[in-house]
Amino acid sequence: MGTQVRPRDHPSGRSQAHAVRELRVTSGSPEVSAAEIERVFREERGRAVAVLVRLLGDIDLAEEAVQDAFAEAVQRWPSAGLPPSPAGWIITTARNRSIDRLRREASRKDRYAQAALLHAHDDAPSEEGPVCDDRLRLIFTCCHPALAPHSRVALTLRLLGGLTTAEIAHAFLVPESTMAQRLVRAKGKIRDARIPYRVPDESDLPDRLRGVLSVVYLIFNEGYAASSGDRLVREDLCAEAIRLGRLLAELMPDEPEVLGLLALMLLTESRRAARTTPDGALVRLADQDRERWDRALIAEGQEIVRACLRRDRPGPYQIQAAINAVHSDAATAAATDWSQILRLYDHLYALTPTPIVALNRAVAVAEVEGPEAALSRVDALASDLDRHHLFHAVRADLLRRLGRSAEAVMAYEAALDRTQNAAERDFLRRRRADLDSARESDPRNGDARTT
């Protein structure tokens, strides 16, 4: 996740990122660079929104207030310098802006009551409860049972992950317009049902855990392979997901799926340095320099997997972690135990029979039974995954391995049409060019997404 978080449009019609880009042009020698302001935005937006939602009890007002605060930062910080606590400055400024907005927009009778309520928070003690981290608390709050499961996850990704509607739609394999409607409905449900923004009781946590884990997983997924932008990885989202995963593990150490998700993220993150070349080009798992894998993260992730095995309460995240543990065990790509990986995918598909699991299982089938057996399984997923570029990328590779070059070129073209990530597009172009010039290298290829 190396690209910057793309914030929502500001009420003025300009995004905050656009305002920062303007700063590069209009400021001569700023004391605070545009890159520094962008970094603060990426790192602090989720926390600021979480705090303001708790304070204001209104999602739209919180987002707009934080957006206004960053717009003010763009104007002030280049000449005034970075404040001692940028996060505190953003939260305080956003809070003050929200009070101003309420005063302007509310009736005379209500506005003083609303402003007084906000001011009362100054002297109120911090809300007590089992979840102390504001961002994790907002995740649990948004995963309220009154909301549809997909809406809970999508809304939290929007608020805390900083993901755009298009990125969230990509994660759910639905059109952007469909996702936009879900987000509007989720916000309306919270408003109309007067769902409270409070720390969930400890007894509420297990019932909300599934949605919370989905949110953290999808934040990491967008970081691991960004759906758009110039770079394959968005490190900021990977780091935030792992931070939340560690908090969850501390909060709920007896939940195996919490530990499984943390192990999955750690083992996947261990390969990050080897997944791209110095110039940002994607490197397949089979071609990665395994000396560059982070052995400390691998050791930590594998130890968690072993602890999960001892509990003998398998779940989807634990099985995915075990699959990644098998990959991390192999000193070379050729030494990978694909038979074990296929057995794990069989177990995973029995628990979660989704098209994406079936696609990744087909990659393992190709390694164990051959590309022809895998291709028939992949083709059966066309109606579910036609919009997903990875479906076409996997299919193209299987066709290439079967010597059906013309069909493989068409599949690569379909994959190119469906991805907005520059690193993935460059990789797919190289694979297509290899076919065009008949200069193929390694005929074996794993999951097009397993990098």
TrEMBL record:
InterPro entries documented for this protein: DUF6596, RNA_pol_sigma-70_dom, RNA_pol_sigma70_r2, RNA_pol_sigma70_r4_t2, RNA_pol_sigma_r2, RNA_pol_sigma_r3/r4-like, WH-like_DNA-bd_sf
A molecular-function term among this protein's GO annotations: sigma factor activity
Keyword terms: Sigma factor, Transcription, Transcription regulation
Residues annotated as domain RNA polymerase sigma factor 70 region 4 type: 139-189
Record has Transcription regulation as a keyword: yes
One Pfam assignment: Sigma70_r2
Positions of the DUF6596 domain: 208-307
Biological processes per GO annotation: DNA-templated transcription initiation
Keyword Transcription regulation part of the UniProt annotation: yes
Family note: Belongs to the sigma-70 factor family. ECF subfamily.
NCBIfam families listed in its UniProt record: sigma70-ECF
The protein's name: RNA polymerase subunit sigma-24
Organism annotation: Nocardiopsis gilva YIM 90087
